[in-house]
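Per your request, structure below.
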């Protein structure tokens, strides 16, 4: 792969930033792969596999910190896991895939740049709404190859259902479970085809997740890193729409 060093460094940086807030980073990996012209049929599997490692390590970190609440997670995963499997089994048109992915990347940018960083007061969760949101997020997560945390996190925060740290813990395990379901869905139709460089990407992802989890738990921030990733996502989304 051309510019391999830059590619792997971007994977590392993405894993650092996303894992610091309990995310797997699939939307970022997809953006990077789009920039480097990775074939759409290889992108979903690669992003979901990376999610397993990065989100799993991130969840363990926040779980050890005592921020995980299973009662907040359960309503979302009841329907998200089976719907993620269904979404992953769909074979969509490459143009449609790129448009949907572009839209989700723009949502990711908005989430990083415009959502307040401090939420302390929480409200009881609305179970029926959470079930519907879980089904929606699971379906589209499986279809485009993300874990859904990039959309779940702002919802939890804006509806005041969880604090920042609780959101990170819930999002991490939500991403891990949906990614697992999505991988099974891809494998069931013989479409689990990650790029050959996936092993190097996994190493970069694991290294980045340990760094990011440490940053997240120690309450360190890196606005410049956030803006850099947002720029990458913005560039990739325009590239997807344009081409």
């Amino acid at each position: 792969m051309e510019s391999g060093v830059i590619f792997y460094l971007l994977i590392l940086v993405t894993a650092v930033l996303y894992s610091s807030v309990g995310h797997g980073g699939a939307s970022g990996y997809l953006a990077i792969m789009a920039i480097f012209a990775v074939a759409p049929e290889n992108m979903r599997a690669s992003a979901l596999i990376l999610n397993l490692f990065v989100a799993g390590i991130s969840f363990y970190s926040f779980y050890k910190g005592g921020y995980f609440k299973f009662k907040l997670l359960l309503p979302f995963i009841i329907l998200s896991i089976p719907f993620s499997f269904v979404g992953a089994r769909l074979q969509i048109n490459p143009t449609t895939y790129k448009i949907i992915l572009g839209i989700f990347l723009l949502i990711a940018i908005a989430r990083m740049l415009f959502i307040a960083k401090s939420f302390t007061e929480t409200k009881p969760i609305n179970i029926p709404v959470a079930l519907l949101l879980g089904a929606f997020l699971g379906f589209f997560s499986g279809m485009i190859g993300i874990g859904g945390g990039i959309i779940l996190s702002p919802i939890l925060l804006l509806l005041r259902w969880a604090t920042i740290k609780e959101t990170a813990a819930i999002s991490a395990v939500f991403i891990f479970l949906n990614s697992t379901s999505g991988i099974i869905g891809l494998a069931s139709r013989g479409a689990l085809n990650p790029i050959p460089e996936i092993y190097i990407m996994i190493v970069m992802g694991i290294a980045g997740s340990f760094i990011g989890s440490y940053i997240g738990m120690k309450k360190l921030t890196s606005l410049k890193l956030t803006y850099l990733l947002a720029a990458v996502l913005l560039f990739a989304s325009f590239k997807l729409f344009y081409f």
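Residues 56 and 176 are 6 Å apart (CA to CA).

Regards,
D.
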